Amino acid sequence: MRTILSVVAVFAMIAIGAVVFAPVSSADSGLVFNKCSGCHSMKRVCRELGKKNLAEWTDTVKRMVDLGTSINAEQVKTISKTLADEKPDGSAFCR
Ligand code: HEC
Hints:
This protein is mainly alpha-helical and 95 residues long. It has helices spanning 2-21, 26-36, 42-46, 54-67, 73-85. The chain has one domain: Cytochrome Bc1 Complex, Chain D, domain 2. The longest helix has 20 residues, at 2-21. It is globular, with a radius of gyration of 16 Å. The termini are far apart. Bound molecules: heme C. Residues 35-36, 38-40, 44-45, 48, 60-61, 63-64, 67-69, 79, 83 line the site of heme C.
């Protein structure tokens, strides 16, 4: 029983580590572009890069969901994290 528990614990730590430390991938940029350029231009998003932290981006993205953006809870997290990590002019979807 103990062994099973520690195996589970190790896998859980690896999984959490992968989520927390995963670098922003181009797939995430694609997701942001696809989901956030429908109602307004990406400029609206890009001019806020580097100004909002993760909590503020999460609030913004949730507000966009209220306005009609169709993304699930997992995508809210991915998009908010991608935007919070993004440098003001360094992102693929702003060029
Ligand atoms: C269903 C239409 C729609 C979609 C899709 C959409 N937005 Fe918006 N967005 C709006 C509207 C309307 C406003 C202006 C009203 C407001 O600010 O609440 C806005 C304003 C903004 C602003 C400027 C205001 C602020 O709080 O900084 C940002 C940043 C923003 N959106 C980011 C995003 C992001 C990121 C996504 C993708 C997750 C997204 N939007 C998708 C409708 C949308």
